[in-house]
Specification:
One of its GO terms (molecular function) is aldehyde dehydrogenase (NAD+) activity. With about 550 residues, the protein is α/β, with parallel strands linked by helices. The protein has two domains: about 85-295 and about 520-530, 3-Layer(aba) Sandwich (Aldehyde Dehydrogenase, Chain A, domain 1), CATH 3.40.605.10; about 300-490, Aldehyde Dehydrogenase, Chain A, domain 2. The chain is about 35% helix and about 20% strand. The strands form five sheets. Strands 15-16-17-14-13-18-19 form a seven-stranded mixed beta sheet, sandwiched between helices. The radius of gyration is 25 Å and the shape is globular. Residues about 1-5 and about 10-25 have low confidence and may be disordered.
């Protein structure tokens, strides 16, 4: 089949109104091959790969254990190193100039606007929203409200790129030349074959938004999602196929890290988007010779300014930022710099009480999928060796649960460390070590110690999110002007978490930094600039051969 969209395919996509995709859904989505409520050790689900237009299995099945009880409940067809040939061949079929670009197959921009419209409508159906929210909960346990919000953000993103909005991403510009017939045109150009690697904590939102951004701009992506949660995106790809996504436009691979690394080195995609740990990000950057965009780890800070107000609200936001999704957000509040004026406000006691509301029964606290309980306890004990440090609340494993030991199970925890001690050599690296779980460091500063707070922020290596909680305009101006985090919230309602579809989410201070969700993010990550200078004449009648120069 041609890589370009056929007129017949385009017509079929455009004829099928959004309602046609969902009219037959009364109870179970038609695309679904699993039922979230039924996936269990006694009724395991299977996850397949998708390559060159077909769903395929593998000679190797990797069992995923239920994070709540340890049962083997999902088996994933993980591609082995000897099985990557079909994925390499698929990527090689896409030229460097992409499946479409402003001068080739522009009707595909319209097609993706239509696909987005239908997918947004489908994902907005209550049955489908509930399906994905509950499937997310099964593999990456979080409260229903948190899981549902992830699906709703994904749905709103698709709504944002309906109709003409996809082709608007490829908007070009022209500049007059030096003489008649000359002009320069700037275009947003795809990379062609690309790769996307995404983590476990947002099984739908991160891979879907990056996948669609890559497709919108004319690339052909191979997508790898952490195998622990890849069942969510497998089901979403089936939904997209129902909405008209051409089968040959993307591939979906399940594998371990070593096999994916081998595929990247041998298939040589022209750009790879990686979301995950800093350690893996740096390895990929070296292996792929810089052809990467990264949204890696975030040790995210929050500064409470001198103006104390709305204490109940600020305490609630601090609790949400640090402990929602059991702290497994790259934007989670890692360290809280609290102006001494807040000490007498009761803030810490309110935060403690809010943290104690969280319980495993409703998944407002739950399994930590990448850090064991022992590792979190060890980190806490190392912090407690610092002079003046103490546990503010938490500090204990969860009780009465069946979470397997390969995962973590920890009460929401806060450890106080004096500011002067944080900045000492040896302590700083320990304090600013990211613990991807329900764990934060709290410290206090006085009016004349703001410089020390800003020094700490300057010395951190990760610059993803930050919050400056104050309505003092001069304080905000000072801190904002001397910080760098790519997604910074400012004002009394400021938070560190939140990656909605309506604003940029990504780090700053790194030329490899990737964004997500907005037109600016899509253009930055999934296209490059190309300039074409037209010079068609006429050659002036008075032109004569000049002297050699």
């Amino acid at each position: 089949m041609s890589r370009l969209l056929s007129r017949q395919h385009l017509a079929a996509v455009r004829r099928s109104a959004p309602f046609a995709c969902v009219s037959r859904w009364l109870h179970t989505p038609s695309f679904a091959t699993v039922s979230p409520q039924e996936v269990s050790g006694s009724s395991p689900a299977e996850v397949q790969n998708f390559v060159q237009g077909s769903w395929t299995a593998s000679a190797n099945w990797n069992w995923i254990v239920d994070p709540l009880n340890g049962d083997k409940f999902i088996k994933v067809a993980e591609v082995q190193g000897t099985e990557i040939k079909s994925f390499m061949e698929s990527l090689s079929k896409c030229p460097k100039h992409g499946l479409h670009n402003p001068l080739k197959a522009p009707e595909r921009y319209l097609m993706y606007g239509d696909i987005s419209a239908k997918a947004a409508h489908m994902l907005g159906q209550p049955t489908v929203l509930d399906f994905f929210a509950k499937l997310i909960q099964r593999v990456s346990p979080k409260s229903y409200q948190q899981a549902l919000a992830e699906v709703q953000v994904s749905q709103k993103f698709l709504e944002n790129f309906c109709g003409d909005q996809v082709r608007f991403l490829a908007r070009s510009f022209a500049v007059p030349g030096n003489h008649l017939g000359q002009r320069s045109n700037g275009y947003r150009w795809p990379y062609g074959p690309v790769a996307i690697i995404t983590p476990f904590n947002f099984p739908l939102e991160i891979p879907l938004l990056q996948l669609m951004g890559a497709l919108y701009m004319g690339n052909k992506p191979v997508l790898k999602v952490d195998s622990k949660v890849s069942i969510v995106m497998e089901q979403m790809i089936r939904l997209l196929h129902d909405c008209g996504l051409p089968a040959e436009d993307m591939d979906f691979i399940n594998s371990d890290g070593a096999v994916m690394n081998k595929l990247l080195l041998e298939a040589n995609p022209k750009m790879t988007l990686f979301t995950g740990s800093s350690r893996v990000a740096e390895k990929l950057a070296a292996d792929l010779k810089g052809r990467v965009k990264l949204e890696d780890a975030g040790f995210d800070w929050k500064i409470l300014g001198p103006d104390v107000q709305e204490v109940d609200y600020v305490a609630w936001v601090c609790d949400q930022d640090a402990y929602a999704c059991s702290g497994q957000k790259c934007s989670a509040q890692s360290v809280l710099f609290m102006h001494k004026n807040w000490s007498s406000s009761g803030l810490l006691e309110k935060m403690k009480k809010l943290s104690e509301r969280r319980k495993l029964e409703d998944l407002t606290i739950g399994p930590v999928l990448t850090v064991t309980t022992e590792a979190m306890i060890e980190h806490m004990n190392n912090l407690l060796k610092i002079r003046g440090s103490k546990v503010l609340f938490g500090g204990e494993p969860l009780a009465n649960h069946s979470i397997p030991k390969i995962y973590g199970a920890m009460k929401p925890t806060a450890v106080f460390v004096p500011l002067e001690e944080i900045l000492k050599s040896g302590n700083f690296e320990l304090v600013t070590k990211e613990i991807f779980g329900p764990f934060q460091v709290v410290t206090e500063y006085s009016e004349d110690q703001l410089e020390l707070v800003l020094e700490a922020c300057e010395r951190m290596n990760a610059h993803l999110t930050a919050a400056i909680v104050s309505n003092d305009p001069l304080f905000l101006q000072d801190v904002l002007g001397r910080s760098v985090n790519g997604t910074t919230y400012a004002g009394i309602r400021a938070r560190t978490t939140g990656a909605p579809q309506n604003h940029w989410f990504g780090p700053a201070g790194d030329p490899r930094g990737a964004g997500i969700g907005t037109p600016e993010a899509i253009k930055l990550v999934w296209s490059c600039h190309r300039e074409i200078i037209y010079d068609v004449g006429p050659v002036p009648e008075s032109w004569a051969l000049p002297s050699a120069t």
